Amino acid sequence: MRAKLLLLGQMTDEPCFNQLRTIEQLGYVVFSGPSFHDIWSGYRILIQSEKDCRYLEGRIENFLNTFEQTLNDMSNEDFESHKRAMINKRLAKLKNLSSEDNRFWNHIYSDSYDFLQADVDAATLEKLTKKDMVDFYNHYISTSSSQRSKLSVHLQAQAKAKEPSLDERKTAAATALKIILAEHKITANDEAFQARIQDVSSKDAIPDAVATHLTDDLKVDKEVANKVLDEAKAALGVAD
After folding, report:
1. Are the CB atoms for 140 and 2 separated by under 8 Å?
2. Is-contact 60 47, C-beta < 8 A?
3. Of the candidates 212, 159, 220, 236, which has an alpha carbon nearest to the alpha carbon of residue 187?
4. Domain boundaries along the sequence of the chain
5. What is residue 219's predicted lDDT score, i.e. its pLDDT?
6. How many C-beta atoms surround the C-beta of residue 55 within 10 A?
7. CA 41 from centroid of its chain's CA atoms
8. Which of the ends of the chain has fewer CB neighbours closer than 10 A, N or C?
9. pTM of the predicted structure, to 2 decimals
């Protein structure tokens, strides 16, 4: 389990940051990786953002869904490359005595006393196959797994960020809508949306403009349109 979580963290490190931080720009801080404790271990994704927590959770779930396919399609060469990178990290020589001291004391503080853990991890990683990781992901990480356990923590600051201007809200709506439409495999029409939203005079009217755009301009099915609208509202922090 430990080796599989380490390898999952290695494989998702760059794509998670690239998707959630660089492309979707959900927040300045985006972190992913394994987490190990005395009696449990897991995989976590953390986002620090001004956006609505429910929307952020939805984007994390979407990333996990997307990566499931990425893992299935990953070539053996890429898989072995990730595996070798993780093995090299575990076997990397400690740079100084302080680093070695910290490693040993961490094992003591955690009551594990597994002073050869890095070597054991490397040996276990060496034996892992792509099928092992696909089965592991489908069982423990996949959003469709009945065996999956998930803990979602939403921390909201008491102090509120500066209220964005109406133009900033319009820009945010256009950006969020484009991403959400792509996830639903719906072709966006930015020109039509800009025409709908340019005359909006208040933030409360933006969701109505989005709804009209979906049904009248894009001719989206009502059920799908409602789902897209809910996601867009969450992205704008005006979810019901």
Report:
1. no
2. yes
3. 220
4. 1-141, 166-236
5. 92
6. 22
7. 18
8. C
9. 0.73
Is pLDDT at 239 greater than 70 in this prediction?
no
Q: Encoding tokens for residue 49?
A: 């953002």
Residue 240 has pLDDT above 60, yes or no: no
Contact 220, 193 (CB under 8 A): no
Q: Which residues of 10-24 are buried (b: 16+ CB within 10 A; e: fewer)?
A: bbbeeebeebbbeeb
- Structure tokens, 232: 């867009």
What pLDDT does residue 139 have? 96
- 103: which residues sit within 8 A by CB, 6+ positions away? 94, 118
Confirm if 2 and 36 have CB atoms less than 8 A apart. yes
Mean pLDDT over 82-109 rounds to 86
Helix pair 166-183, 222-235: axis angle to 10 deg: 130
Does the pLDDT of residue 180 top 60, yes or no? yes
CATH topology of domain 1-141: Cytochrome Bc1 Complex; Chain A, domain 1 (3.30.830)
Task: Let me know if 95 is exposed, middle or buried by CB neighbors in 10 A (0-12, 13-18, 19+).
Answer: exposed
- Could you give the CA distance from residue 83 to residue 128 in angstroms, rounded to a whole number? 8
Could you tell me the two tokens for 128?
């892992």
How far is 81 from 123, CA to CA, in rounded Å?
A: 16
What is the end-to-end Cα distance of the chain in Å, rounded? 39
